[in-house]
Amino acid sequence: MARFGGLYVRSDDFVYSGTITFDKTGVDFWDGARFVIGYNDPTEFEVIDFQRGGIFYTKRTNDVSTGWQHYTSVPYLFKQGESYDFAIKVIDGKLYVDVNGDRIIDGYAMPADRCEKGFGVFNSKSAFTIENLVISELEKEENNGGGGTTTQPEEPGCGGSLAGYSAAAAAVALGCACAVALIVRKKNN
């Protein structure tokens, strides 16, 4: 269930999806696109990094230079000028990352003491374009007929397309889209 509080829309189970193109990769291997999947404050948050040489799941705590806690990473070569379809999913406390239809991270068990859930996109010394960015809450069904539970996409409370926007413009547009979605959702309830 989505919870709305402060500046952030939070959800237990969600998916980011879209197409990313690196217009300029950073000089250092850690430079790239960062997708926030948990946020407490500006000094403590969790990200999925699409970096020049791989995909990383990390948490920043306190100092930016020494406060990065590494959870998992997988080598992956993102090439400048090429487009990549991606999906970042969090389902039942497990992380899944797909790039161009290939599962890159498959059910990584996330720590129990995760940051509050929050969404955002920012860069680290790189330039990228994200097209068709959608962030959707995933709604759980109690029973899928086989005794287990399944997770299905729910109508996005804060989704939208940001086709062709730069990372900075996309972040601003996404914030505006979230505010509008919250207002519409509140008005309809």
- The CATH architecture: Sandwich
Helix/strand-derived class?
Answer: mainly beta
Q: Shape from CA axes?
A: globular
Low-confidence stretches: 1-9, 142-189
Order of helices and strands: EEEEEEEEEEEEEEH
Give me the Rg, rounded.
Answer: 16 Å
CATH topology description: Jelly Rolls
Q: What's the β-strand tally?
A: 14
**Main sheet record:** 7 strands, antiparallel
Average the pLDDT over all residues and give the rounded result: 71
CATH class: Mainly Beta
Tell me the number of helical segments per DSSP (H or I, 4 or more residues long).
1
Q: Quote the distance from N terminus to C terminus.
A: 15 Å
State the oligomer: single chain
- Please indicate the count of domains: 1
The CATH homologous superfamily name equals: Exo-inulinase, domain 1
Percent strand: over 45%
Residues in helices, as a percent range: 10-25%
